């Protein structure tokens, strides 16, 4: 199966282009855009870890190492498409247009963080595993029924392939030929459980065969192949050619979450063969002569400033309101909930006067 | 103060050690893995990692990967295969990482774990334990804080246990593993490290189905379990300063309920406050009221008070302090019942 699903690459670890057929498409604009997004989300990610350490946000699941997978796939989408992320895919959602302040609010225990910007179809991060996969099938199925050319992408990890929802989602997509992209980030570990214990299959991509679904396996640290393969899958979906399963092989550099200690279950050396996705793109850009120090410096400064400003705004955000516990639960709030809310709000007033 | 089955343990002779609840659970698992070769642990991240809360720390190293089993990420798979293991000679102790992630396994628990014995007229029984941390209050991400015990007390064929102290945790866990019936063992994650107490180092059990009076009083009965016990204890201490003597019942088992203990206490005090962090509607409080109604109606001197979560999903953590019953809400209800 490893041979049937080779890991596709466009660039190697040193930034050499391996497949010259892509040469003409690697223009400076695209490379800079990719670099900017990857640097931006890495800056966000590192800041978020820092904020958690200082007690300024709650538990946070870092995605460092997976930037090429998240940026490459998100850039292949267009406005109007649907995104169904997990809790580790804020890099993808931010690239697709999610609001950074709200993303930080999410990790500070605020539901405001689940609300997408107007006009953007971004689902709240799925915290249970694999539950978002059938949702993506349904949303893209609706687009097909309505006769649009929009697609949906579902993000999920290697662990998710053990859950029923993964298999049920793929089967529905295949039966109804929905325009869905199943984007797997195989980062080697589901918390502490390595891929070899998660499955006895050599690849995740091969699982598509069972569902009669086109599938590909790509180097998830090669932003270019992720981008072009996702674009191809999106194109096929828009044309009515059905779903694709993409396995992006990557590596979570850090802990599962800030509450996790990866030294318990893996050694420092294990991820060594994965060369940092930003560094790889940097090598390539330098080789192609589109690495201008000043431009890069400007990108770095802009990203840092943006993240710092977002943190400030998050911390100045109005306090969460008790009413929000109740007000959005139903379109038509039942009387007993109105009463519970009023009684509780009243009791808070009472205690303020004490 | 906890009651013990004296045929199984001599409280005086057993050596004890100070443990937190998580240590007591770890010790209970180690005890049963040592004593009974049929015991297997299954779950996500319970092996090498020692569990996300460290409940199984050191057990993988001591008993090996054939008995402390890191499973694929599949709650339905964990519980479904545990049924097969249980009917075929093993005693699986399955960990669901957080109670809020048990829902994919709900089908297996509802349709098979709980009723296999009934539908085979006792031919097959399912001697398994499902351990799950539950509850809010530690600023966990969403879904990690659910308190869904009533979904399971409503399920005929399953017993539901929930300790509040390390001593009870180990004794109930051993009793659960020894039991031939399937048991959901709920662990108040907020109390994992904040509760500490003397725990016998050997084997002992606490009878499933028996509550415990952890504080005697004459004016009002406070009924709670798990993570609500420390809150109720604080409220009772405040009430004491106002001259109200509270009796506190730690239910310990949520199904079957200790009807006699509840009746005996409420008949003495004539008043009751029930405290649980799950949503009120369909919560266990309604069953407790029903027991009091059936056994003690003529003894009541005030309507029974309930302090519960609101009928909303457990909120994201920025608002969880408004959701989880507080000392103040419990005290208000005590005073309301007393001044009725």
Describe this protein's structure:
The complex is a heterodimer of chains A (354) and B (340). Chain A is of the alpha/beta class and 354 residues long. In chain A, the strands form two sheets. A six-stranded parallel β-sheet of chain A has the order 2-1-3-4-8-7, sandwiched between helices. Chain A has a two-stranded antiparallel ribbon with strand order 5-6. Chain A has twelve helices and eight strands. In chain A, β5 and β6 form a beta hairpin. Chain A starts with 27 loop residues before the first helix and ends with a helix. In chain B, β13, α10 and β14 form a beta-alpha-beta unit. Chain B has a seven-stranded mixed β-sheet, sandwiched between helices. Chain B is an alpha/beta fold and 340 residues long. The chains are: A alpha/beta (354), B alpha/beta (340). At the A-B interface, α12 of A face α3, α11 and α12 of B.
Briefly characterize the structure.
The complex is a heterodimer of chains A (354) and B (340). By secondary structure, chain A is α/β, with parallel strands linked by helices.
The number of distinct helices of chain A, counting runs of at least 4 residues, comes to: 12
Strand tally of chain B, please? 14
Biggest interface and which pair forms it? A-B, 41 and 42 residues
The fraction of residues assigned to DSSP E strands of chain A is 5-15%
Subunit arrangement of the protein: heterodimer
Question: Main β-sheet of chain B, in a few words?
Answer: 7 strands, mixed
Work out the helix count of chain B.
12
Task: Give structural attributes.
heterodimer; A: about 350 residues; alpha/beta; six-stranded parallel sheet; two-stranded antiparallel ribbon; 12 helices; about 45% helix; about 10% strand; B: about 350 residues; seven-stranded mixed sheet; five-stranded mixed sheet; 14 strands; globular; disordered N terminus
Compile the SSE list and pairings.
The complex is a heterodimer of chains A (354) and B (340).
Chain A: H1 28-53, H2 67-74, E1 82-84, H3 90-96, H4 100-106, E2 121-122, H5 132-146, E3 152-157, H6 164-176, E4 180-186, E5 189-190, E6 193-194, H7 195-198, H8 207-210, E7 214-219, H9 223-238, E8 244-249, H10 277-287, H11 293-316, H12 335-353
Parallel strand pairs in A: 1-2, 1-3, 3-4, 4-8, 7-8
Antiparallel strand pairs in A: 5-6
Helix pairs in contact in A: 1-2, 1-3, 1-10, 1-11, 2-3, 2-9, 4-11, 5-6
Chain B: E1 16-20, H1 21-35, E2 39-43, H2 59-63, E3 68-70, H3 75-87, E4 91-95, H4 106-113, H5 116-119, E5 129-134, H6 149-153, E6 159-161, H7 166-178, E7 183-188, E8 196-200, E9 212-215, E10 220-224, H8 228-241, E11 246-250, E12 253-255, H9 259-269, E13 272-279, H10 284-296, E14 305-309, H11 320-323, H12 327-338
Parallel strand pairs in B: 2-3, 2-4, 4-5, 5-7, 6-7, 10-11, 10-13, 13-14
Antiparallel strand pairs in B: 1-8, 6-12, 9-11
